[in-house]
Amino acid sequence: MRSSEFEALLDVSARVGADPALVQAAGGNTSIKEGGTLWIKASGLWLMQARQRDVMVPVALDALLDALERDDPSTEKAQDFVIADRNPSGLRPSIETTVHALMPQKVVIHVHCVETIATAVQVNGETIAASKLSGIPHAFVPYARPGLPLAKAIATRIRPDTSVLILGNHGLAVAAETVAEAELLLAEVSNRLALPRRKAPDADLAALSRLAVGSNFALPEDSLIHDAATDLASCRIAAGGSLYPDHVIFLGRGSFVAAPGETAAAIEERHRGEGVSVPPALLFPGKGVLVSKEVTAGALAMARCLSDVLGRINEGARLRYLTDAENAELLGWDAEKYRQELNRAGKTLQ
User: Fold this and answer.
1) Cα-flanking dihedrals φ and ψ of residue 115, to 5°?
2) HSE toward the beta carbon, residue 226, CA cutoff 13 A
3) Which residue, of 9, 230, 334, 345, has the greatest Cβ tally within 10 A?
4) Bridge partners (DSSP) listed for residue 37
5) Could you tell me which residues are beta bridge partners of residue 172?
6) SS3 of 196, please?
7) How far apart, in Å, are the Cα atoms of 297 and each of 193, 216, 221, 305?
8) Per-residue pLDDT of the chain (350 residues; tens, 9 = 90+)
9) Does domain 4-192 have CATH number 3.40.225.10?
10) Are 138 and 163 a contacting pair, CB within 8 Å?
11) Residue 116 near residue 166 (C-beta atoms within 8 A)
């Protein structure tokens, strides 16, 4: 029998997961600690499905925390701490289980809020966050790979009263003793960090249709995806590289910005000739975006996220892009390979 708070968490998870300004694709996770068990969203599943399928995994909290204190490498995946007889679906715990375990509050909500990301990717993001979150016990945690490295980085910055984490180049986590308090805190922090979004020109659909001829690319259904290319300030930022992990996981390293005169067919041919993967999304400056006809739901969600984030960043802002090593680390990491496989198989929407 599930508690009323557990049921409330499922409701909030579904609401938060359905809001693209807070969660995209299989990103983000929620948790609740009850009776020595940490219930956390499973890796690779979508929060918006929380009321439609089993998405929560039971983890032995004390055992996990003890292992973290010993610096046990098994905490990286947290799979060894799953309570098997209460996990009939055989789900794997979120890659960020250790982060949730470290926060002492009963309820934790972690999101990839576009308002937060637009601040957290800036070189002076910590200063900006501090000025906007006055009165809220928070910590800014510089970028670390999601999972155990991030948990270790948090452990050095968190205080007993910390209820908000601004995660550099990543997102936001809020914690409270009740689901209702956590949801209210999430709304408060998101509102305080809100940034105006530039108005992007409309996409040139006729030109894009011509650029797609003879290729495996087509127009996206979500018109907001085009903003990353039609708004030239956003397009220049996108050309600089990757800004946050889930972009890398679902769209690959950086963004592909087409050169003048390039067509989608020519881009495909060149990539195949070089023996490299064709990007799932192509940005044509001033015109818009084309997406692969085989694009996954996860990649589409992240293409929309790219426009949502970039449109909120001032053109002159100093940004901290993920390094080559950080990009490679994400693409080669076992836990993220699992998420990528779910994404490719389309299992995340089942």
Assistant:
1) -65, -40
2) 19
3) 9
4) 34, 60
5) 111, 166
6) coil
7) 28, 17, 12, 12
8) 799 999 999 999 999 999 999 999 999 999 999 999 999 999 999 999 999 999 999 999 999 999 999 999 999 989 999 999 999 999 999 999 999 999 999 999 999 999 999 999 999 999 999 999 999 999 999 999 998 999 999 999 999 999 999 999 999 999 999 999 999 999 999 999 999 999 999 999 999 999 999 999 999 999 999 999 999 999 999 999 999 999 999 999 999 999 999 999 999 999 999 999 999 999 999 999 999 999 999 999 999 999 999 999 999 999 999 999 999 999 985 544 444 455 555 543 32
9) yes
10) yes
11) yes
Q: Amino acid identity, residue 165?
A: L
Strand partners, 39: 32, 58
Instruction: Report the distance separating Cα 7 and Cα 18, nearest Å.
Output: 17
Determine if residue 145 is left, alpha or beta; phi over 0 gives left, psi from -120 to 50 gives alpha, anything else beta: beta
CA distances to 105, 151, 317 from 124, in Å: 28, 22, 9
- CB of 313 within 8 A of CB of 319? yes
Give the per-residue pLDDT at 1.
78
Span(s) in the chain for CATH 3.40.225.10: 4-192
Here the tokens at position 203 are: 């996409």
8-state DSSP, 224: G
Distance from CA of residue 28 to its chain's centroid? 6
Counting beta carbons within 10 angstroms of the beta carbon of residue 346, is it exposed (0 to 12), middle (13 to 18) or buried (19 or more)?
Answer: exposed
List the 164-167 sheet strands across, edge first: 56-60, 37-41, 29-34, 107-111, 171-176, 164-167, 138-141
Reading phi first (left if > 0) and then psi (alpha if -120 to 50, else beta), residue 76 is in alpha
- C-beta of residue 198 within 8 angstroms of C-beta of residue 233: yes
Please state whether 152 falls in left (phi above 0), alpha (psi between -120 and 50) or beta: alpha
